Amino acid sequence: MSKLDLGMFIHAAQDFEASQYRILAELKRIQANFSHNRIYPDLAQLIDLYTSLTTVTQSSEGLREALPKLEDCVSLNLP
Questions:
Q1: Report field, pTM of the whole predicted structure over 0.70
Q2: Is 9 left (phi over 0), alpha (psi -120 to 50) or beta?
Q3: CA atoms of 66 and 76, how far apart (whole Å)
């Protein structure tokens, strides 16, 4: 049993297809546990993952907003 965490999404860049199958398999396992009313370890895990992914998304949006400002500050003096 693998744990669904942020690392699974980060390592997806190395082997997208294999990571996609691992993530989907883990989500299917969690869904099966939920359908049998076994939510304890999986719900906490999903909440942690949601928090991590939200933080990463917000950080990347902040970086995108900061890059145009940084570009304005840098002047390129090319011949």
A1: no
A2: alpha
A3: 18
List alpha helices for the chain, DSSP H. Answer: 6-10, 16-35, 40-73
Q: Under DSSP, is residue 40 helix (H, G, I), strand (E, B) or coil? A: helix
**How many C-beta atoms lie closer than 10 Å to residue 4's C-beta?**
19
pLDDT for 6-48, tens place per residue? 888 888 878 889 989 999 999 999 999 999 999 988 999 999 9
65: tokens are: 């907003």
Q: Is 3 helix (H, G, I), strand (E, B) or coil?
A: coil
Half-sphere exposure of residue 14: CA atoms within 13 angstroms, side-chain side: 6
Contact between 31 and 75 under an 8 Å Cβ cutoff? The reply is no
Q: 3-state class of 12 per DSSP?
A: helix
d(CA 75, CA 52): 36
